[in-house]
Specification:
- By secondary structure, the protein is an alpha/beta fold.
- The chain is 33% helix and 17% strand.
- The strands form two sheets. A ten-stranded mixed β-sheet has the order 1-8-2-3-7-4-6-5-9-10, with helices on both faces. It has a five-stranded parallel β-sheet with strand order 13-12-14-11-15, sandwiched between helices.
- Helix 7 packs across helix 11.
- It binds threonylcarbamoyladenylate and magnesium ion (MG).
- Threonylcarbamoyladenylate binds next to strand 5, strand 6 and strand 10.
């Protein structure tokens, strides 16, 4: 039965009993889904190869896509890493616990199923009392990818986890909605200068402010290129996608233009899908306001928040992608956000989730090409 494995916990002051029970499950080789400040994770004892292997099975995750190991704090690095560059150390001392994952050479004790056979390991310390309490109660480092079925949007509530994995996991700790709504920033410190493998809540400029070096952001990290030889295994997979098809409209500079572009793309998609299919629009508050003013709105327009605040877009992103499926939409049109701060992460996720990308001009030309507004 759905939800039977769900246990409510207070996100601020998690109940000791729940944490101990969950810690026990992990120590015995079981799986526990838990909230972090980014998204929900699906945890196993990182030093138990059988338990970690089960994560791949339950998620349907390709075996070469490694997991992130969660530790209590910087000292936890010594149980899973063989060396830590000085810059990485300074960074985690400032930012942990927090939404930053570092990639460093792995300790031989870390099973190769966890790292997908790589000589490196990804590690982070989550800024969430439930996650930290769980790691402490388990007494082991916790390997955890996001707790979604592989390829789906990451879960930001316990209900999202249950929707994807039901009770195939032993326990889901329900600590309410996560804060950031997108996954941690991953920085590879085995390269010089360090390289952003996945943008997240910690922006490159935040890192530069602390260590005096700005990590590189390669085109792959912006999902602008699908590399032949990816810097990280995760880069080559399609991700974060709802069942509904998603069309991304990029590069709008003003709400009026965006309103028309979104409208034209919606009509074109409805036309293509046929059968009276409805298409949702995910866009900035300003663009939706403009659609209303122009008489182009007709319900099914969902706000990603004001243009100047990409954190709101991050927090709503996966919820809205899942809403498309829950409400039975066959498609959605989504407006891109400004690629700054956490907006870099939002655009990376949107480009990976979208099956088609249109520049604003292309989107506008759909109206001219005979789809009547
Ligand atoms: O915020 C987060 O990072 C969440 C929460 C649960 O902590 N976790 C998460 O894990 O998002 P997920 O599902 O994205 O999987 C881990 C990512 C993959 O993209 C994987 O390719 C990358 O980390 N990764 C893990 N180990 C790596 C390594 N040694 N080198 C490069 N990338 C690695
Ligand atoms: Mg994931």
């Amino acid at each position: 039965m759905k939800g039977e494995c769900l246990v409510k916990v207070d996100p601020e002051r998690p109940e000791r009993e729940a944490l101990e029970r969950a810690g026990d499950v992990l120590r015995r080789g079981g799986l526990v889904a838990f909230p972090t400040e980014t998204v929900y994770g699906l945890g196993a004892d990182a030093l138990n190869p059988g338990a970690s292997a089960r994560i791949f099975k339950v998620k349907g995750r390709p075996p070469d896509n490694p997991l992130i190991i969660h530790v209590e704090g910087p000292e936890g690095l010594w149980s899973v890493a063989s060396s830590v560059p000085e810059e990485a150390w300074r960074l985690v001392e400032r930012l942990w616990p927090g939404p930053l994952t570092i990639v460093v050479p792995k300790d031989p004790g870390v099973p190769s199923v966890v790292t997908g056979g790589l000589p490196t390991v990804a590690v982070r310390s989550p800024a969430h009392r439930v996650a930290l309490g769980l790691i402490e109660a388990a007494g082991v480092p916790v390997a955890a990818p996001s707790a979604n079925r592989s390829g789906r949007p990451s879960p930001v509530t316990a209900q999202d986890v249950a929707e994807d994995l039901d009770c195939e996991v032993d326990l889901i700790l329900d600590g309410g909605e996560t804060f950031f709504g997108v996954e941690s920033t991953i920085i590879d410190f085995t390269r010089d200068p360090p390289v952003v493998l996945r943008p997240g809540p910690i922006a490159p400029e935040d890192v530069e402010r602390i260590i005096g070096v700005r990590p590189l952001v390669p085109p792959e990290a912006r999902a602008l290129a699908t590399p032949e030889r990816p810097l990280a295994p995760g880069m080559k997979y399609r991700h974060y996608s709802p069942d509904a098809q998603l069309v991304l409209v990029e590069g709008s500079t003003n709400p009026r233009e965006a309103a028309w572009a979104l409208h034209c793309t919606r009509l074109w998609l409805e036309n293509e899908l046929g059968g009276g299919a409805a298409v949702a629009v995910l866009a900035s508050e300003e663009s939706i306001e403009e659609m209303r003013r122009l008489g182009l709105a007709r319900g099914g327009e969902w706000s990603l928040g004001p243009r100047r605040d990409p954190l709101i877009a991050a927090r709503r992103l996966y919820k809205l992608l899942r809403r498309l499926d829950r409400e039975g939409y066959r498609a959605g049109v989504v407006e891109g956000v400004v690629e700054e701060g956490i907006g870099l992460a939002v655009m990376n996720r949107l480009r990976k989730a979208a099956s088609r990308r249109l520049a604003i001009g292309e989107a506008l030309s759909l109206c001219r090409r005979g789809v009547r507004p």
